[in-house]
Amino acid sequence: MIPKQLVDGLFSQFGTEDINQLSIRQVGKLVAQIEQQSGVEFIHMEMGVPGLPASHIGIEAEKEALDKGLASIYPNIEGIPFAKEEIARFVRSFMNIETEPTYCIPTVGGMQGSFAALLTAARTNAAKPYTLFIDPGFPVQKSQLNLLGLPFKAFDFQHFRGEKLHDKLEEFLKNEDICSICYSSPNNPTWCCFSDAELKTIGELAEKYDVIVIEDLAYFGMDFREHYGIPGEAPFQPTVARYTDNYILILSASKIFSYAGQRIAMLVFSSQAYNRSYPNLRKYFPADTMGRFIPYGVLYATTAGTSHSAQYALATMLKAANDGKINFVELLHHYGEKAGKMKEIFLKHGFYIVYNDDERELADGFYFTIAYPGLTSGELMKKFLYFGISAISLAITGSENPNGLRACVSFVRMDQMEALERRLEEFVHSV
Fold first, then answer.
1. 180 - beta bridge partners?
2. Gap between the Cα atoms of 69 and 63, Å rounded
3. Where does the chain hold its CATH 3.90.1150.100 domain(s)?
4. Residues of the chain with CATH 3.40.640.10
5. Cα gap 361→359, rounded to integer Å
6. Residue among 124, 123, 190, 183 nearest 153 (CA)
7. What DSSP assignment string belongs to 297-331?
């Protein structure tokens, strides 16, 4: 057990008494300090960092691009043709959604993609300033809106799955002040996945109330209950794009190709969303379509484009997947194996899963949620630190459940499973 005064002393430096409020990066910093001063190696469940090596295909493509001298040239804001073509092919091959290269734009990671999508959607109509989050979700997206001074609403989907989702969504949308709906599926932090029926509900209501759906697919294809990963063959990644043209899809190379460090992702629009005129956008930039506003108004102002080398890496990795030369989903099953083992250990020691899919057992994947009877999320999070275990509170994800943590499996090694079990035994004994 790590000395309580050491943990409490380091935590006190963060300027808050509520550990629930620490961001993911703050938790990472705190844990690094505890590790350094205690000499105890933590079981890291706080950071959603890929635990697999980056795609060799991408690395070699970047080297080749840099050797050609592209590092000295500003990249095309809308993306290089090679990348745009392969993004469009990927969407057609693995989602069965028709799109064109024009409507596909590389971004500096999914973070810039969500920043651009959320900002732009909120500027489309002055009478509809609110983003609606279907929570729990990635906390940084709300931080982005807070930074921009833009308002949002949210609800926890735990009690509104299936048919209940329709009435709950309409409760918000009927006020006619919502510009966009934002969610992730597979979901960060719960790993729940919206069913096709739920996605149809979201899409149909988006059409009815003229709302943009921002669908975050950072964990594309990672619902391991289905066999995704074969180009042009069902099953395809579920998406709201089958039920509305009012969509922006965010896809990232960070998890599916373990390419987080090079910050490369994709925005995909429907033709309608890309080309539609929104006169209100002209208040902020001399363009009234998303297809012009986002690349030239937002991306140019924030980064001046996505690096050539990262775009070539993305395009080459996507091409390999599109050509059937790699099965990127198969490579990711390692996360599911670890999640299954970790959940088994937690459940054995009296923990329970906070969020589960209603219709069938929750998939084993990148995240799961845990709680311990009688402890709030903050109490559990703090006590875990004394035993060299780190996780984040569900409180910062928009969860209304006061008793849960998000467990990320990516950084937990298989050779740490015995240590995890031993530390949980000590934890239970202390409680």
1. 131, 212
2. 10
3. 4-52+332-430
4. 56-322
5. 7
6. 183
7. IIIHHHTSS--HHHHHHHHHHHHHHHTTS--HHHH
CATH class, 56-322 region: alpha beta
In sequence order, the 6+-apart residues with CB closer than 8 A to the CB of 130 are 122, 151, 152, 153, 177, 178, 179
State the Cα–Cα distance between residues 414 and 230, nearest whole angstrom: 28
Instruction: Quote the distance between the C-alpha of residue 127 and its chain's center.
Output: 28
Alpha-carbon distances, residue 94 vs 81, 233, 309, 328 (angstroms): 20, 8, 24, 11
Kindly give the parts of the chain with pLDDT less than 50: none
Parallel/antiparallel/unpaired status of strands 392-393 and 405-408 = antiparallel
Class of domain 4-52+332-430: alpha beta
CA-CA distance, 179 to 169, in Å (whole number)? 13
110 close to 254: Cβ distance less than 8 angstroms: yes
**DSSP category for residue 361:** P
Give the model's pLDDT for residue 96: 97
Contact yes or no for 116/343 (Cβ under 8 A): no
* 59, containing H or E segment: helix 56-67
pLDDT digits (tens, 9 = 90+) for 347-404: 999 999 999 876 678 889 999 999 999 999 999 999 999 999 999 999 999 999 999 9
Alpha-carbon distance of 231 to 319, in angstroms, equals 11
Please answer whether residues 359 and 196 qualify as being in contact, where contact means their C-beta atoms are separated by less than 8 angstroms: no
3-state secondary structure of 43: strand
